[in-house]
Each structure stands twice: as structure tokens, then as C-alpha cells.
Specification:
about 250 residues; alpha/beta; Helicase, Ruva Protein, domain 3; Dna Topoisomerase Vi A Subunit, Chain: A, domain 2; five-stranded mixed beta sheet; extended; binds zinc ion; DNA_Rcmb_RecR; zinc ion binding; zinc-finger; zinc
């Protein structure tokens, strides 16, 4: 009964639309299609009034996480700044690339040959924390829970991205262990497939040395990356690190 009522109502509604003639329908179709094409082309291509502006937007747009619209906003913002402010901005970028150094011991980004952490007498030089990049060093330092030194690999083993062990600072880590003063290596790598692959590879390479190999406790969500973990969780996971052998079984 209810079904029939609904059918009648539907037919009524369709019947009400009968005033739309085939010609009108065709016109509506062309109207909507042209609007769709116009909006698509507007958002896909930007028409610049200046080649220099276009060039700057293109360069900013190459940065990770910056789309063309954001790039345009940044460039227009820079244009509004004073000459001095823009010179400071470009100078900082030029200096960064020309003068930045990588610590020759741990490969962390530094201003000098040996970074502050490696040259500090207050740090425990018998414990090395192995991390992917400088962002992880910053995240762990922010916890104030770790007193050892670091070793920055410069990435993770990722066959999909064509990154193999030879592309990372693994040989340099082995060299540090050969010196014989290291007692513990903490593998603080992301809980991702690449992180786990790298941990397993490092374990195979380091297990014959007389050092304790541990991984940070995985209170961190699986698939989580270190830089996004809050300081308390990251600090606790370093403090409660576990020997790696137990994980391998
Ligand atoms: Zn260093």
C-alpha cells in the first residue's frame, strides 16, 4: 500500500518536470558542462601577468606540501616585504646550502665539523641512538630523557624508492663500533615497514659486536613516525627500550 503511494508520488513528481522540453534539457546540459569546464580550467591553470611571478610561484610550488595557490600567496607576501626583509630571507637560504655542515661523527646537521652533542663532555659517549634524520634527533632531544649520542642514517632502507644500505651512513656506524668504546646501540627508527627492514638489517650487521642492541619500546602507534609522537610518549619509549634479540625471538 505504502509502496504504491510512493510510486504515485514519484510519477507525480516526474510529471511535474514534464514542462522541461528536450530543447531546454539540451541547453541545461551545455550550460552545466561549460561551467564545469570553466571551473576545472580555472583551478588547473593559472594565468600569470608576469613571467617572473610565474617562475617564483613554480619554485615555491616545488616545496613539499605547497600547492600552486599557497605558492602564489607566499610569493605575493614576499613582494609586499621591504628589500631588507627579502634579502634576509634569500640570504638565509643561500647560507644554509653553502655553509651547512654534517657532523663528521654522527652526521647530524651542524654549523661546525663536530656537532655540539658529539663534542659535549656531559653526554654518554658509550650509547649511540640510531635515527633516520635530524628531525628525530630534535624530537628525542626535546624529551630531555636521553643523554647519549646519536648516529643519523640519512634515511631508511626502501627498495621501492631505490634506497639501499649503501645510500645510508651504515658503514660509518660500523666504524664507530669498531673503535670498541660503544656499549649500547638504540635503534630508534619509525615503526613502518622501511623502519623495521632497516632495524633488521642493522641487527644482522651489528650483532657480532660486543654491544647491547635495543629498540625503542613500541608504545608508539604502528606505522607512526617519530617526529609526530608527543614528547612524553617518545621519552618513555626510550627509557623503557627493549633488547632487540627478544623481538627477533
Ligand atoms: Zn655529532
Amino acid at each position: 500500500m505504502a509502496k504504491q503511494e510512493r510510486l504515485v508520488k514519484m510519477r507525480g513528481a516526474i510529471g511535474d518536470l514534464s514542462f522541461i522540453t528536450p530543447r531546454k534539457r539540451l541547453l541545461t546540459f551545455f550550460f552545466l558542462t561549460s561551467h564545469f569546464l570553466f571551473l576545472t580550467s580555472y583551478f588547473c591553470t593559472m594565468h600569470f601577468s608576469s613571467r617572473l611571478l610565474e617562475q617564483a610561484v613554480e619554485e615555491f610550488g616545488r616545496l613539499p606540501g605547497v600547492g600552486k595557490k599557497t605558492a602564489l600567496r607566499l610569493v605575493l607576501h614576499l613582494l609586499k616585504q621591504s628589500d631588507g626583509e627579502v634579502s634576509r630571507f634569500t640570504g638565509a637560504i643561500n647560507q644554509l646550502k653553502e655553509q651547512i655542515k654534517y657532523c663528521k661523527t654522527c652526521f647530524n646537521i651542524a654549523d661546525v665539523e663536530v656537532c655540539e652533542i658529539c663534542s659535549s663532555a656531559k653526554r654518554d659517549h658509550e650509547t649511540i641512538c640510531v635515527v633516520e634524520d635530524t628531525r628525530d634527533v630534535m624530537a628525542i632531544e626535546n624529551t630531555n630523557q636521553y643523554q647519549g649520542v646519536y648516529h643519523v642514517l640519512g634515511g631508511l632502507i626502501s627498495p621501492m624508492d631505490g634506497i639501499g644500505p649503501a645510500d645510508l651512513k651504515i658503514e660509518a656506524l660500523i666504524e664507530r663500533l669498531r673503535a670498541g668504546t660503544i656499549k649500547e646501540v638504540i635503534l630508534a627508527l619509525s615503526a613502518t615497514m622501511e623502519g623495521d627492514t632497516t632495524i633488521f638489517y642493522l641487527y644482522r650487521k651489528l650483532k657480532d659486536f660486543d654491544v647491547q642492541i635495543s629498540t625503542i619500546a613500541r608504545g608508539i602507534a604502528f606505522g607512526g613516525e617519530l617526529e609526530y609522537v608527543d614528547e612524553v610518549t617518545l621519552g618513555r619509549s626510550i627509557a623503557t627500550r627493549v633488547p632487540y634479540e627478544r623481538n627477533v625471538g
